[in-house]
Amino acid sequence: MPTFRMRDSSGSIRLKHVIEDTDRHGNVRIYLRRPGHLKVRLRSQPGTEDFLAEYRAAMMGATPRAPTVPLDRRGSKGSFKWLCEQYYVSAEYQRLSGRTKYVRRGILDRICEKSGSKPYALMEPRHVRRMRDEMADRPEAANGFVKALRQVYSFAVEYELAQRNPARDVPYLKAKGDGFHSWTMEEVRQFEEHHPIGSKPRLALALMLYTGQRRSDIVRLGPQHIKDGWITLTQAKNRDRKPVTLSIPVLPELKAVLDATPTGNLAFLVTAFGKPFTSNGFGNWFRKQCDEAGLKHCSAHGLRKAGAALAAENGATERQLMAIFGWTTMKEASRYTRAARQRVLAASGMKLLSRGGDGPGREEARGGET
Questions:
Q1: Which residues form the Tyr recombinase domain (predicted)?
Q2: What is the per-residue pLDDT for 146?
């Protein structure tokens, strides 16, 4: 076990599982070699904070990488920016999906631009609440901010870089309204009248409405996912952490559209260049198709909501909705079943309010007249 002298003259340090190898040219290379794991090269200058950070990351299971920013722009030890840099090379961050990494790093980098030099250990719940409340007009952004901080400090607590998580008990803000507009059946028919069967927009509508999947799944869906009249796919959301695999039947309405529409080989929906859409690219393209049909307030996500509402109103249970849409908890499904039950109960209950109805107690309400 080699000994490394710290460059800041703070002393020497010996690191477990670190070895030195000399190649045939006489160059000394340093590796982390743990029993049962692949040997990982440590490339930073020994005795520096960068070297220690790389060593800790490798011990956590992440593959060390060359710094992505110049050394003079990296955070000083103990700063919030430094903590984020440790998080970015951790196993916790590396196992996130590419989309989640992109979004989360964007949030944290914006915090670093404003407060990156401040000591992360001094962060208090009141600071988190104040920054959250500054985004009160954008509740989704505010909640994303709180979630990102929770994850960073959860990592810090787990690896003994912090004593507590200041964002853990800061609640999310309640979103205004009900989010994306849920399509009505009249709006679906209006879109269908403008985009007939055989067109790409009509295929996109059918795939979303009759599978209930997110656009991140719709853009990947292709012939290889269908066998014996069933669609089987693993949803893109959380597929690297808690994958959800679904099998749903191909409804006759969807089959009719698929049979009449030219499609791609590996993805049903492709761009003008024959390439599969990205999730964002598809969203922008479908937005234009809605505009052309005179539905400027409708979106791809709203179709998923419409499908859930339609299924619930037709009697689908919460468990059935979870099986169709891939939800892992009752919370989301219960929103639609509650709304559907309210409509059914209101339809039957309003008969009792009608002056021309035959509801019980009508004569008593008139004072017993005959």
A1: 178-349
A2: 95
Under 8 Å CB-to-CB from 350, ≥6 apart: which residues? none
**For 131-142, how does the pLDDT look when each residue is reduced to its tens digit (9 = 90+)?**
999 998 888 889
What does each C-alpha distance from 207 to 226, 237, 322, 343 come to in angstroms?
13, 18, 18, 27
Starting at the edge strand found earlier in the chain, the sheet holding 226-227 runs: 226-227, 230-234, 245-249
Range(s) of the domain holding residue 17: 3-61
Residue indicated by tokens 């922008």: 284
For the chain, how many residues are written?
370
Provide the percentage of residues in the chain whose pLDDT is more than 70. Answer: 84
Instruction: Answer yes or no: do 210 and 244 share one domain.
Output: yes
Tens of pLDDT, residues 250-307? 989 999 999 999 999 889 999 988 889 988 889 999 999 999 999 999 988 888 888 8
Task: Write out pLDDT tens, residues 40-84.
Answer: 888 877 777 777 777 877 777 655 444 444 434 567 889 999 999
Q: What is the DSSP string of 130-158?
A: HHHHTTTTSHHHHHHHHHHHHHHHHHHHH
3-state secondary structure of 291: helix
Q: How far apart are CA 86 and CA 347, in angstroms?
A: 58
- Same-domain pairing of 39 and 151: no
pLDDT band at residue 25 under the 50/70/90 scheme: low
- In this structure, the answer to whether residues 338 and 196 fall within a common structural domain is yes
What single DSSP character describes residue 317?
-
What is the model's pLDDT at position 66? 43
DSSP 8-state symbol, 65? -
Give the residue with greater pLDDT, 133 vs 336: 133
Same domain, 315 and 234: yes
Q: Are residues 33 and 117 in the same domain?
A: no
State what percent of residues in the chain have pLDDT above 90. 38
Three-state DSSP string of 142-204? HHHHHHHHHHHHHHHHHCCCCCCCCCCCCCCCCCCCCCCCCCCHHHHHHHHHHCCCCCHHHHH
The end-to-end CA distance of the chain, in Å, is 103
CATH number for 131? 1.10.150
The pair of structure tokens assigned to 254 is 């969807």
Instruction: Look at residues 142, 299, 131, 100 and name the one whose alpha carbon lies nearest to residue 215.
Output: 299
